[in-house]
Records
---
Amino acid sequence: MRHRYDRECGEGSEEMSKVVAVMNTCSKTHTVHAAMNEDGNVDISIESDCEKIMDLSKRLKYVTINDVTNFHESRLNDEEMRCGIGFCCLIFTAVTQAAWMELGMLSEGHAKKVKCNMVSYE
């Protein structure tokens, strides 16, 4: 977990990376929180109004760096992990992006500047 200086409080504060996936096709929203743990893995917490994604949140408590950098060996692609979740669902992309921010592989400043990535149906 990153440690930052809080200007208002004048003391250090702990923050997590946060990514929100808005699924307009199914009217669901998934919020992913990621925090580095002492083992070097990234703890994952998911909030959603989708029952399938809340079931996933019980199975997916952390990701390793390999899970977010090696597509073929990633646990995120395991059938047990994806159980019942549609292939087009953005939850696994949101988990990966949150972990990348937490690991410093995606600049938080840049991510907040661009605000979102988008899939558009035209």
Note: The helical segments are 51-59, 79-82, 91-103, 108-114.
---
Amino acid sequence: MPYPDTDAVQGQMAGGTTRRTGDVPLILTQLSPHQVADTSPLHGQPIDVMTFGMVRELCPACQGGLKLILRQSSIRVAHLFCADCATCYDARYPDGAPALTI
């Protein structure tokens, strides 16, 4: 029995959510720091944030690496963050589905 091409397959996960596989390009939309965090590091108030690793996408503004930030005590929205230019991004699949939800 031949195995399906994993780059073209969308598998069903428990709970009815769809898991996308392969190198589907994500659409990044810039977010205001005020949308994602209770306090903004731009106002001189540092916040303690745990990152969850680098992602394959690069920052559209400076081509720096993006880090995944999930919801935490002072973080309202999961997002991608560029430490080089302090920019936040939402990520979606081409069909409009959110890429940063579990």
Note: The beta strands are 10-12, 18-20, 27-31, 51-58, 65-69, 79-82, 87-92.
---
Amino acid sequence: MSSTDASLPSTSSSSSSSSSNVETNSNIHTTAFTTSTIGDTLASHDHQHHHHTHSHEDEDNDDPDHHHKDDPAHRIVLPSDVLPSILSSPDDIEYLEYIGTQGQKITILDGLTKLTKVLSVCFRSNLIKSMIGLHQLPKNIDNLELYDNLIEKLEDIEQFQNLQILDISYNRVRTLENISTLSSLSILYIAANKITSLNNYLLPLTNLTKLDLGANKLTKIEGLETLINLDSLWLGKNKITKIENLSTLTKLTRLDIQSNRLRKIEGLENLIYLQELVLGHNGIEKLEGLDTLINLTILDLSGNKITKIENLANNKNLEDLWLSYNQISQFIPDLPLLHQSCPLLTTLYLEHNPVSSDWEYRKLLSKHIPSLTQIDATMVRR
């Protein structure tokens, strides 16, 4: 399987297990810009993630002197230094992108006042520490990507009332203050930061459809109750102990809470439109709490403590079931019932369970669940 977005749950992710959360585009041009008049074609940042591929790295270096004075982050490099020909005549620029994976990296946001028509700005993988300077951009920009920088605080963005997409993943942000005014936001990626609590800052953002909070330091699911238009939510790689406060998010189709500290499947009763549920790498001991999820097609519970395949009678649309790295020691009595409960099941992962040591393991699965086309990572031959 594959967050940041694969069609099947996997980790890297918005996470390197069998299911993960921030998906990133590996085919990124190292230095690129786009204007409305220049015909250069770019590889843009594709964030379909964020879904199941979270390869979030958690940096905890809080030492303000961590960067030596000769470190590139301490040099003053402006957007005009890396895009001189563009910013010297910016009248018709609508899309501006600079990805600092090679060459110079932007450190200071300044000299942007002439970009009077720009609508989308991407300064990915640079060394920007502060968002101060963004106020120089037009107030009507709709896309802002500052993925993979050194930003510590959300600021100088309150004026962007038309902003629809904000990507601030892989930075050092600790709080979501100053984001509440961005009422038009539909997509917010803020994975791999240092956020410990949402503090109700997201409650006014009722137009959000996609939210990635993976690889932060959250201990509780809260402060999301008003986000009734969410269809995708990534919370992988936090420190969450309980599934709760999601009952109002009835439009969710994708939910990822992998690599947390969960012990029980609960609190999902109202999420009847859920199609993908990723709860891998927790401490869950029993397959339960899924009765109302009649539209579920992908269920990832890899890396838990489950001992029995059960309680899936209402999940008639289930196609992919991931139970690798659990504690299932016998399954023969359960297989006919599993086939009856989930007639559309095509993919089943049970590797690294005690039961998988049986030399007829694959044969038994194929016999009792004839709908299977894949067992673990191997296609079924009939």
Note: Helices lie at 79-82, 84-87, 335-341, 361-368.
---
Amino acid sequence: MSAQRVVSASWQGQPVSVSCHMVSRYAWTSATIDVAVGEQVVLRTGGAAKVTGRHAETFEFRGTRHTAELSWGVSLWYAFPFSLTIDGTEIVKSRVSISNWWLAWWPFYLALGIGVCWVLLR
């Protein structure tokens, strides 16, 4: 199963999108998975310091309260496997890629830059 930058599904006639990106939390080594129903973001994991996990949020849609629950597994090759349920019904189970995964490599780039400067300034 290949990963997509934005995974799309449908719920009650509304588009549902799941996306993922690195966040500055923990020195850019954490990612948030976000879920939107239509134009409304209903769930954000917020860059939790967990390898795997589960996060739930309550939201209002058409005057009724609903619960979105996202569970995710271990990231492999810059993508997370996940499962999204709303009110206990599975909406989508897939993999979502981390859109700005390269930000997690900043320590490597810093060390490389320091190494190059050290060699040039010797």
Note: The two ends are 49 Å apart (CA to CA).
